[in-house]
C-alpha cells in the first residue's frame, strides 16, 4: 500500500462562494459519509485537518509574506491521507469527494514518497 495526500482546494475567502448554514449541514453529512466510507475500507491513514485561510509564506533570503494565496481566491482548505494501491485507486476515491460539488473546487492527489532510503 502507498500513502496519498488529498488536498482540498476551494475559494475560502469570497463571501458569495461560502455555503449557507443549511448547505453546510448537507455538505458536512456528505463529508462524514465519504470519510466514513474510506475508513470502513481501512484506507484512511490520517483524518487530516482543516487549514486556516490565513498564513505566511517564507521564501529564500528570509522574505516573509502574507499568504499563502494573497493574489488568488483558491486556497488549500484541508487534507486527508489515504492508503491505497496506486494513483488510480486514489483518484477514484477523490472523485467521490463532496467538495467537488462546489463550483471551481478541486482535489489534488499526491503520492507521499518516503524519505527513508531503506524502503
Automatic annotation (TrEMBL):
Domain YCII-related, residue spans: 49-111
Signal peptide: none
Organism: Leptospira kobayashii
Family matches, as Gene3D superfamilies: Dimeric alpha+beta barrel
Domain of life: Bacteria
Protein name in the entry: YCII-related domain-containing protein
InterPro entries per record: Dimeric_a/b-barrel, YCII
Lineage: Bacteria, Pseudomonadati, Spirochaetota, Spirochaetia, Leptospirales
Protein family (similarity comment): Belongs to the YciI family.
Pfam families per UniProt: YCII (PF03795)
